[in-house]
Amino acid sequence: MTLALGCIADDYTGASDLANMLTRCGLRTVQTIGVPNNALALPDVDAVVVSLKSRSIEASQAVARSREADKWLRARGAPHVLFKICSTFDSTDAGNIGPVMDALRADSSDDIVLVTPAFPGTGRTVYQGNLFVGGVPLNESPLKDHPLNPMHDSNLVRVLARQSRSKVGLVDLATVAKGADAIRARLAELAKQGMGAAVVDAVFDPELEVIGQVSLDHRLSVGASGMGLGLARGLIASGKVKPTSSGADQKAIGGPVACLAGSCSQATLAQIAQAEKSMPVLRLDPEKIVVGRAEAERALDWARAKMGRAPVLIASSSSPDQVSALQARHGRDAAGHAIEQTMAAISEGLAAAGVRRLVIAGGETSGAVVDRLRIPAFLVGPEIAAGVPVLRCVGWGRGEAVMALKSGNFGGPDFFNDAIRLMP
Ligand SMILES: Nc1ncnc2c1ncn2[C@@H]1O[C@H](COP(=O)(O)OP(=O)(O)O)[C@@H](O)[C@H]1O
Ligand SMILES: O=C(O)[C@@H](O)C(=O)COP(=O)(O)O
């Protein structure tokens, strides 16, 4: 297998969002969980997205895991690696976008890296280096209340410079609009001024196509699924990849179906409220989760009694005020970790009870669940909503299964039912 494109995603929902985009653009793509071990048989593909859970861990660990993934991808021929970050630039001043970018750039020997989280398909646009989420500056969007990485600055040149050893410049929209050579000239100018990274403006997909084309001159880029679109279209336009329409087959799995929500995003809170109109929903008590283990057992007893007759949804999600109050009592990391591990324990119990169709809302939550279930890889199936595909497990010890890993911010109001409809 010689890869045309390698990708390292900093969380699992982000990885499936990107794998979805690459598949829709015509690249044969597989999503692996962590760096695959050599025993895992992978189909012949154009792109591999290695999913890490490195967004909110200590920066030095994120760097080490990303470098290991990069080595694995380069050893399989990947001439270009995309470091996939969140389209809302989720990070803190301690990292992890800057430190990982710096380390991968040093390994790649590139002088400058193009960086853009723009993903117009989900309303993420970048203008004059400022990130907008659905038309609202990042720091005024719901991301200001994220439980792990609240975003308080929409200027990405500033945000990235605070977490990187590199000096950071800007390729503005006026330059992007002039085309590939104008971007190349601006990058050369920035590199000459000692900049190691350039945030690139993009508002519409055609700009991402030009950005993707220029990025392919380099060995590394940093971005979200919009950058994936640009790279995939660039690979196809240059004839380096022959497009295919194949995705995972859609064989029915059957049996009970369950949903788990650990995301506290506004989108997920509204989707849970909507699901309550059509399926049994159990709301966990976050305080009890942090101080003991009984909530997982209570949830499993509840689910086992209901499962099979209808889909069930178990949610820890609460409003920004309640999240802040819990964090003030127990600490941000301790609260997040305890809830993620409880979700993982519940998923283990559900799998033992025969669940082979699972919908999970939340990036960190999905990471904790998929790790606990020891799923090695996924093939991408039909698209449920922008950025959220049905995923078919590859090489799972428990056999055939399908999952959907939803980024907290993604999906329409009836997302849980939309997903279940596509997971027969
Ligand atoms: N009620 C709650 N109070 C505080 N933190 C919570 C609560 N419910 C879930 N969490 C934590 O919030 C974080 C949500 O992150 P994540 O799952 O990545 O969702 P998203 O995709 O919206 O970012 C996780 O660490 C999760 O454990
Ligand atoms: O780019 C995006 O917005 C998503 O692919 C993503 O990374 C979402 O992360 P979570 O909100 O933590 O699921």
UniProtKB/TrEMBL annotation:
Chain ranges of the Four-carbon acid sugar kinase nucleotide binding domain = 259-416
Function as written in the Swiss-Prot or TrEMBL entry: Catalyzes the ATP-dependent phosphorylation of 3-oxo-tetronate to 3-oxo-tetronate 4-phosphate.
According to its UniProt entry, this protein's organism is Afipia massiliensis
Tell me which family the UniProt entry assigns to this protein.
Answer: Belongs to the four-carbon acid sugar kinase family.
Q: Name one GO molecular function term.
A: kinase activity
Q: What is this protein called?
A: 3-oxo-tetronate kinase
Enzyme Commission number(s): 2.7.1.217
Q: Which residues form the Four-carbon acid sugar kinase N-terminal domain?
A: 5-228
Q: Which SUPFAM superfamilies match?
A: YgbK-like (SSF142764)
Top-level taxonomy: Bacteria, Pseudomonadati, Pseudomonadota, Alphaproteobacteria, Hyphomicrobiales
